[in-house]
Amino acid sequence: MALDCVVLAVVIATALTALPVSFFLNKLNLMKDSRLVLAAGALCLAGAAALPAWILRRRYRNVDFIIYVFATFCWTTVIDLFVGLELDGLVKGFMGFYIVEGEPYLNSSHGTMINYWDGTAHLLLQLSGISLFTMQESYREVGLYWVGSMVNCLLVLLGGAVLGRSDVKWSILLNVPYVIFPLIAGFRFLRERPLQARSYRRVPPITRRPLDLLFLVFFACALVLGVARGLNAIGAEIPYLRDYVITYEPYLSDPVGFPKVQMLVNMFYFGLYYLCVIDGLLNPGQLWMADWSIIQAGASAQSQFVYLASAIHPKTPKNFRAPKTGVPAAVFWGVNLLLLIVPHLFALRCFKDPDNYGRTYTVDVARPVSQPTTRQSFRTNTSKRE
C-alpha cells in the first residue's frame, strides 16, 4: 500500500508548531516559575496529541497505541532539537526559559547531545514508524529499536539529573510520559510477538560457527569492560582501572553525573543482556533473541553516540575530553565504535535466522477506513451471488 501523505503531513505540520509555541512562551515572564513551565509543557503536549490523533482515527481502524505516541512525540523532538541548538548558541530566543527554569541539568555536553539525538534519531524513527503503519508494513522492528533508545536515554537523563550538580525542578516531571509510554510499548511489543514453533533443527556447536563464535567473544569482552567501567563509576580504587580511565577514557571522570550513570546502566542492564546472549549463542533456538537484539541495538546507538559526541564536545572541560592522538585515541575510538556497531550486526544476524532467533514482524497491520473489513467483504460477495 502507498504511503499516506496526508497523515504524515499533518504529523509534521503539528510538530513544527513547536517553534512558534516555544518562541511565544520564551517571551512570557510567567515562564520564570518552574511550576508554570511544568503546566505549560503538559498543556502543550496534550494539544500536540489532538490533531494527529483525530486524523488517524478518521482514516484508520484500530490504530495501534504506539502510533499515537509516535505522532505526539514528534512535537517534543522538535522542541528538544531546538534546546540542543540553543545550548550550543546556534539559535536564540526559543528555549532559553526552559534551560533555566525547566531542566538546567541539560546545560552540559551530555545533556546537549541527548537533545540532539532526540531531535534527530527519535524524530526519524517515529516518522518511519508512522509511515510503515500507513503503508500496512511491519513497524514492530522500528518500535523495538525506538524503545531501546528511549529507555536508555531516560535512565541516563534522570539518573544524571539526580546525581549531578544542577538543581532538579518541577519540570523534571515532564519526562514521566517518556518513561511510561516506551515501557508500555516495549511490553506490548514483546507480548505480541509473532507465534512461532521452536525449531528442533540440529545446529552445529559454537566452535563450528565462526561468526557466532566472534559474537560470543565480543559479548564476553563487552561484559568485562562494562563491569570495569561500572566499578570505576562507583569509585572503586583499582590501580589498573584508574590508569585505563586516565589514559584512554578521561570523560568517565567528568564531575557531571551522566557518564557515570551510563556506565552503571552498561554494567547492570547491558551486562545482563550480554550474559543471556552468550547463553543463547551456546544453546541456539531461543526465540527471544531477535526482539532483544533490536532493543539492545537501539540502546547501544543512543548511548554510544551521546557518549562519543559528549567526550569531544566543547562544553566538556579539556582535561576530560577524549584523547586526540596516538594509541590512547585509537583505543578510545576502537573500543567505543565496536560497542556501537557490533550490536547492530548481531541484530542483523538474528533477523536473518528467524528459525533460531525468532521473528519480529508486526502481526496486525493497519486497516484504512476506506478498506472493507472481512465481514463486510463476505456480505458484499454473498449479496452479489444472490
Automatic annotation (TrEMBL):
Keyword Transmembrane: yes
Cited PROSITE patterns: EXPERA
Domain EXPERA: 63-186, 211-347
Location relative to the cell: Endomembrane system
Transmembrane segments: 36-56, 65-85, 114-135, 142-164, 170-190, 211-231, 263-282, 294-312, 332-351
InterPro entries: EXPERA, TM6SF1-like, TM_Tm6sf1/2
Signal peptide stretch: none
Membrane-related topology note: Multi-pass membrane protein
Keyword Transmembrane: yes
Record keywords, A-Z: Membrane, Repeat, Transmembrane, Transmembrane helix
GO terms for cellular component: endomembrane system; membrane
PANTHER family: EXPERA DOMAIN-CONTAINING PROTEIN, TRANSMEMBRANE SUPERFAMILY 6 MEMBER 1/2
Family: Belongs to the TM6SF family.
Listed name of the protein: EXPERA domain-containing protein
Species the sequence originates in: Littorina saxatilis
